[in-house]
Amino acid sequence: MPLHDVGYRAWRGRLLPSWAAAGVIALTGVRLAWKSRWLRRAVLFAWSPALFFAASFFAFEQAVDEGRLASLTERAARGGNLDGLGILGTIVANTLGHSDTTPPGLTEAERLVATRRLVWTRLLLAFMRAPQALLLVVVIGLVAPALISGDLRAKAWLVYFTRPVGRAEYILGKLAIVAALVAVITMLPAVALWLAGVLVSPSVVVGLETWDLPVRAVAASVALAVPTVLLALAYSSLTAESRIASFAWFATWAACWIAHAALTTADLVAATETGAVATAAAVPDPPPRRGHWIARAAGLDGRLDRWAWISPYHAAGVVQAWIFGIERRPQAVLPALGALAAISCAAGSVLAWRVAAPMRV
Question: What distance lies between CA 97 and its chain's CA centroid?
Fold first, then answer.
């Protein structure tokens, strides 16, 4: 009868790099999350606003190609509506209607390049701030709350941490799951929108003139993704019930939005009653004449939002406007940037502490 050695035997295999373990966790998580029909519908719906913005790119470039840019500028300066552009024509109209749209002393070709660049920048910024950021909150609320809370409820960490998977690989894998969704919802549509603008423009040279816009779109997506992903996973790590984590996620955004709206409204009321401007700096531009909400998303409202740091949505919007070169005032950018950094550090610390808790037991 043969005898089998069932005792301890040293493993002679080769360990894969740490990023490989994180990649396996990320791929598995994305594959499982993609089985949800609600998630697939939400991602498909998140790409639909790009069609409307692409139509605006096409209408603007068609006007340029037909030599109607000067007439559009004059019409916008008088407060006229731009036919064929729909509600997004508000962005183009308010951009062209500003007296400082392009610096003086430029040739006709240089003025065209500067105008096109400014219009494209504002369209991309409005696209990333108005529809995509709001849809991103919904999609993250559908996926992220269950990523770690589900492992805590099923005690899956007994499987994870008995393998050569450390805390860093586990966290990196979970972050990559949500980061992939962020890229699909914000970064990829924005880059595709810029590419569509290049394709409908009169010459491919336009791509060289605006080559930094997709880079700025990627940076703006990262600025939005880092605090939101860390915050969502931190909530998920604090409880074994994904419903509680999901409620905390949506409640945070709603409460901060309401607080920002209340404080901003109080400032406007105080300014109206006293006849003074309730900001620390002079207003460089008048408020947009129409379509205030989407014009504000495009950075056309020159008023200083001194309460943006209270709301993650508004703080991320200010930082994105700074990345696109629209917002340059330090008193507007620094508080918002500090708020997002504080959220990222606090959420990252909570996440690392909670993930390491099973190892301390």
Answer: 27
Written as one string, the DSSP assignment of 280-301 is SS--SSPPPSS-HHHHHHTT--
Which amino acid belongs to residue 149? S
319/332 Cα distance (integer angstroms):
9
Please provide the distance, in angstroms rounded to a whole number, between the alpha carbons at the two ends of the chain: 44
Alpha carbons 69 and 328: distance in angstroms, whole number: 27
Instruction: Supply the pTM of this predicted model.
Output: 0.80
Please report how many Cα atoms fall inside a 13 Å half-sphere around the Cα of residue 285, on the Cβ side: 19
pLDDT of residue 10: 65
**Cβ pair 236, 152 in contact under 8 A:** no
How far apart CA 317 and CA 274 sit, in angstroms, is 29
Q: What is the pLDDT of residue 150?
A: 82
- Cα distances (angstroms) measured from residue 12 to each of 6, 15, 163: 16, 10, 15
For residue 361, count CB atoms less than 10 angstroms from its CB and return exposed for 0-12, middle for 13-18, buried for 19 or more: exposed
Q: Which tokens belong to 14?
A: 């080769």
Q: What is the pLDDT of residues 177-220, one digit of tens each?
A: 888 888 888 889 889 988 988 888 877 788 888 888 999 999 99
Residue type, 334: L
Given a contact cutoff of 8 angstroms between Cβ atoms, the answer to whether 329 and 304 are in contact is yes
In this structure, what token pair is assigned to residue 319? Answer: 């930082």
How many Cβ atoms sit within 10 Å of the Cβ of residue 221? Answer: 25
Strands annotated E in 238-360 = none
Residue 49, token pair as written in the block: 């606003």
- What are the backbone angles phi and psi of residue 329, rounded to the nearest 5°? -80, 120
Residue 47 · residue 67 · CB < 8 Å: no
Identify the H or E element spanning 272: helix 242-274
Q: State both tokens at 326.
A: 């629209």
